[in-house]
Amino acid sequence: MKSKLITGVAGGIDRAFTSVVRVMTKTSDSQHVGTAEAIARAAAFYASKSDAELFPSYPAPTLPGDRDVTWYSTHVPLAAEAKGLFQAARDNRYARARLYLAGRPRPALVVIHGYLGGGSPLEERTLRVEQLFRSGFDVALPILPFHGPRALAGRRMEPPFPSADPWATVEGVRQGVADIDALVGGLLARGAPYVGVAGVSLGGYLATLHASVSSRSSFLAPVTPLASFSEFAKQNGTTSHTAELDALHAVIDPLAREPRLTGDRAVVVVGRNDHVTPRQTHGDRIAARLRCDTVEIPGGHIFGFGFDAAWATIAGRMHTALDVQRK
Fold first, then answer.
1. Full set of structural domains in the chain with CATH
2. Is the pTM of this model over 0.85?
3. 222: left (phi > 0), else alpha (psi -120 to 50), else beta?
4. Rounded Cα gap, residues 288 and 307, in angstroms
5. What secondary structure letter does DSSP report for 106?
6. Quick one: three-class SS letters along 67-80?
7. Rounded Cα distance, 42 and 38, in Å
8. Percent of the chain predicted with pLDDT > 70
């Protein structure tokens, strides 16, 4: 009875959330930015860029001991089509994170929120900050581009990243990875012996991509992750331009890259009743690519019943893999 209740509630919440995302990200021939021609043009532009151009290595910022930290985001859009958006988005020019630090340097875990998240007091609970802190980790909660206090005025619930705009989506991914990498570097510079990166949903996607383009992090934990923007669009029928989207997202697809953190240096959490990023097309594919274990929770994507145990497993796996390595 309890299992059926969990399944019903989790599925209903997930389907409602997916309906909202479907409306926000739907491409259409009536939208200039979402046409097949626009997507193909963006795909050709980014395919011509090297990894060094797409994901450059920036110096780590100096992070103060304050709880809420802000630093200038070093991201520079490659595409002229995106520069106007990023120049106009004043609040997005500064990366932000909330830090939970002990008195002495400890291993740290960066935990990335999902779509439409960022900056909510509830995230301390949903991302299990206290639990992770008591497990022996300093914790950092970054805010993704165009989310939370970095949102465009009047568009907090409709961010341009990710969206039907191919230029904004790719540049948002690039900025998100750059900001995460800067935060990891800053934590290492403060004395953290190692830093892991975890992320929920969209955050899981960025965590996985970051781990394939940067050598700064030491552990990876995608939680009910998005594996592919193209797969999500096909799954929800939000586009008829599947070939163009596949080409566009190839440059930012973590599944298309050689993973750096594999085996016991990674773990993927999947939801048995996840209807937003179903495990078969998202979490399981990432785990197969990383050649790592999956941890299944009985809940769904939004109503994640079983997350306490999942985060405990992440903390335990990270300690085991990296504390042993340091001895």
1. 2-326 (3.40.50.1820)
2. yes
3. beta
4. 22
5. -
6. CEEEEECCCCCCCH
7. 6
8. 87
